[in-house]
Amino acid sequence: MALAEFDLAIFGGTGDLAMRKLLPAMYARDRANDLPPGARILCIGRHESSDADFLKHVEQDAKPHVSKEALDAAVWQRFCKRIKYVAMDATDAASYKALVEAMRPDHAITNVFYLATPPSLFSKICKNLAACGLATSNSRVVLEKPLGRDLASAKQINAEVGEVFAESQIFRIDHYLGKETVQNLLALRFGNVLFEPLWRREWISDVQITIAEELGVGNRMGYYETSGALRDMLQNHLLQLLCIVAMEPPVSITPDAVRDEKLKVLRSLKNFTPTTLAQNVVRGQYRSGHVEGVAVPGYRKEADANPHSRTETFVALKAEVDTWRWAGVPFYLRTGKRMADSLAEIVIRFKTIPHSIFAQPNSSFEPNCLVIRLQPDEGLTLNLMAKTPGDGMRLKPVELELNFRESFKSPRMEAYERLLLDVLRGQLTLFMRSDELEAAWEWVEPILEFWDQEEDDPIPYTAGTWGPAAASALIARDGLQWREEALPEL
């Protein structure tokens, strides 16, 4: 599907996200010849700068994030000609005159406004866009997370942005939904007959979803101290992955058909009580330790840290989807910084065999597992039991692995590439609807309120480990283990 001519205006166009992700993603699409000849990218910043000086900034800060294999001098030169710098104050209505003059008045041009700014500016920017006549029926707005910090602020953002733009023009971005493996999870479930009859409580024992990072907070302390792991990762990325695993088959792949089913999952999550909150939610904060053999400081000793901070850098919880399909199947969600490894994966663990016909006990049979890896290497692994070579009938676990890079030789799109293309096409399937966002906040808000009321600090865990021992105890109470704890030693 060819793209129409567009102007992409990035508020926060000098920032980290624009340089690391957005501009490299647009370059990749230019290299793939997806961008129309007249497409332009307007990077908006507060400080005065010429286009030439700003392009030096792009050369220094964005170009290194393009892989050497993808870098083509002629394409890079062509791409840079698309970039214009607009100096303005996004909070000052009078400043928008500069943006009006920079954008093309042609109604055939699609105007896309990407708000890579703090959420406190979303409403102000949208109102100013309306006041200067840029918020037209041919415009779209992209909202970068965090989309609020609680239910009330999320509702406020939805209401105020909704006064300017229709729901069909609002793209609430979650880059995890742009990952190739998430698309393949939809294909796996709804493009094959094999798994659907087994995708239910009768056959599935539990589901684990993990997003772990070896990195600490780095230079994001100012943001992270007011956010924490639950707001930063669980309320959005982890819950969206849970929705795709647990959703019923939609009637089609159209945006509202998919999002209707995800909303049903969010509304089916069993609400926490004070008792279940204490039992089924673990929060931690990393202390000094070693990651890949290098000593790293604890969270409270990072640069600009509050030495008495109670901000969580780790969350693990047990969720339950209260539906006919999933009743009784625990969903374990886990995310943390300064962990033992950097990975994102979904583990679907099936039930054990009811009876062994072989001369080995049931306990020696590992449950079949489907492991969906989102990063660092995207792929699928199916764990099965198979006979060992030689005499006798002894079974051991084996893996059937699908590596997407080896199976499909065509170039792969990064998450932001896919999502930006979908924005430019007006395709909303991979973006959250307002009621989805509010339902997710409604479910996690009791956790935040519980933590605010209790006096205990987060449980300390050593950097370079898999988090607090309480997270292992959480799942062990159900007779289970996190996947890395259950893996046999080599």
Write structural notes for this entry.
This protein has two domains: 6-144, Rossmann fold (3-Layer(aba) Sandwich), CATH 3.40.50.720; 177-486, Dihydrodipicolinate Reductase, domain 2 (2-Layer Sandwich). Helix 10 (255-268) runs parallel beside helix 14. With 490 residues, it is of the alpha/beta class. Helix 1 (16-31) links the parallel strand 1 and strand 2. It has 16 helices and 17 strands. Strands 16-15-14-13-7-12-11-8-17 form a nine-stranded mixed beta sheet, sandwiched between helices. A six-stranded parallel beta sheet has the order 3-2-1-4-5-6. Strands 9-10 form a two-stranded antiparallel ribbon. The longest helix has 20 residues, at 434-453. The mean pLDDT is 92.
Q: How do the helices and strands line up, and which of them pair or pack?
A:
Layout: E1 6-11, H1 16-31, E2 40-45, H2 51-61, H3 73-82, E3 83-87, H4 96-102, E4 110-115, H5 122-131, E5 139-143, H6 151-162, E6 170-172, H7 180-190, E7 204-212, H8 221-224, H9 228-246, H10 255-268, H11 274-280, E8 281-287, E9 289-291, E10 294-296, E11 314-320, E12 330-336, E13 343-350, E14 369-375, E15 379-387, E16 395-403, H12 404-407, H13 415-425, H14 434-453, E17 459-462, H15 469-476, H16 483-486
Parallel strand pairs: 1-2, 1-4, 2-3, 4-5, 5-6, 7-12, 8-17
Antiparallel strand pairs: 7-13, 8-11, 9-10, 11-12, 13-14, 14-15, 15-16
